[in-house]
Amino acid sequence: MKTALKFAVWACLSAGFFAAPASALEIELPVGARLTAERLSVLDSFDAPVAVFDGEVVPHLIVEGAIERRAWRINSPGLTPLQVILPLREQLVRQGYDLVFECSARECGGFDFRFDVEVLPGPNMYVNIAEYRYLTAVRGTVDAPEAAVGVLVSVTRGTAYVQIISAASARVADVVLPELAVPPKADDTESSPVAVNALRQQLLNTGHTVLAELDFAIGTTNLGGGPFASLAALAAFMEEEPSVRVLLVGHTDTIGDLRSNTALSKARATSVRDRLIGQYGVDPARLEAEGTAYLAPVASNLTEEGRGQNRRVEAVLLPTQ
């Protein structure tokens, strides 16, 4: 028995955003599949992979239009990625989609492929580097697709995760967007004396502090646009204390294996280091970046709230040279 789920790829037709006729993608997932994340965009772009990681990037085609991003979790032990993705692939073919690309874990490029494609953030979507499959299907042609779908499946010992991103091409002329008020750009080049003093006391008293409210782009290790008050405060503190050296340490939750989480945590700490150097002018010689994966939790990894607290980047004071 299965549960039918309809994806209205012209999601905002009823709201008057599109003049084009509706076209729906219908996908059935097993009973018990629980929706964990959903992001619908009136006008956005989706980079649909069309080949494995080539040593530098994952080759892709770009589809601009209505984009729907969803993820599910299926509590069913013993499944393989192929078992999960096979019926999804067959449904796409029946609905007129052509399979243009498919790969599995190591063949895709392993860690490099996973972090160069769009993945919804954990814990909503989780990718086991050793056990995943990806496929891209298009309707129309690869050069000018009418629609594209990216399906990512990953499994652990007791759980399967499914992500489906559907994109329907649209001409800009077909899209009517409401006027958006542009807020004034926040000034993140300076930090208040109160914030700097609070960070100073935390570092001097305990030797480390969590850099609050950092966020990273979906499916990547790239730090979001900000502004981030914690980075401005850290940069100001280091400017006031020219002998200070800092180690940036990335931390993760326990979803996934130690090897992939160590790489992920270090890559995110490196992104923070790059931002401090590039935007705030901190001397690179005074900043180091490392990752400890899930080896230093500050909360329980048995709850979603605790896992969120454990996913962090900390600043640690180093001895002066």
Walkthrough of the structure:
- By secondary structure, the chain is of the alpha+beta class.
- The chain folds into two domains: 2-174, no CATH class; 193-318, 60s Ribosomal Protein L30, Chain: A (2-Layer Sandwich), CATH 3.30.1330.60.
- It has helices at residues 81-94, 105-108, 110-114, 193-206, 229-240, 258-280, 304-310, and strands at residues 2-8, 24-30, 34-49, 60-74, 98-104, 132-140, 145-155, 160-169, 208-210, 245-251, 287-291, 312-318.
- The strands form three sheets. The chain has a six-stranded antiparallel sheet with strand order 3-4-8-7-6-5.
- β10 (245-251), α6 (258-280) and β11 form a beta-alpha-beta unit.
- α4 (193-206) packs across α5 (229-240).
- Residues 1-23, 172-178 and 180-189 have low confidence and may be disordered.
What labels would you give this structure?
disordered N terminus, 6-stranded antiparallel beta sheet, 321 residues, 7 helices, 2 domains, 60s Ribosomal Protein L30, Chain: A, alpha+beta, 4-stranded mixed beta sheet, 12 strands
List the helices and strands and how they pair.
Elements: E1 2-8, E2 24-30, E3 34-49, E4 60-74, H1 81-94, E5 98-104, H2 105-108, H3 110-114, E6 132-140, E7 145-155, E8 160-169, H4 193-206, E9 208-210, H5 229-240, E10 245-251, H6 258-280, E11 287-291, H7 304-310, E12 312-318
Parallel strand pairs: 10-11
Antiparallel strand pairs: 1-2, 3-4, 4-8, 5-6, 6-7, 7-8, 9-12, 10-12
Helix pairs in contact: 4-5
Strand content: 25-35%
Low-confidence stretches: 1-23, 172-178, 180-189
> What is the H/E order?
EEEEHEHHEEEHEHEHEHE
Strand order of the largest sheet: 3-4-8-7-6-5
Indicate the overall shape. elongated
In helices, the fraction of residues equals 10-25%
Distance between the termini: 66 Å
Rg (C-alpha, Å)? 22 Å
Structural class: alpha+beta
Instruction: Work out the oligomeric state of the chains in this entry.
Output: single chain
Give me the number of helical elements.
7
Number of domains: 2
How many E-type strands? 12
Main sheet record: 6 strands, antiparallel
Overall mean confidence score, pLDDT: 83
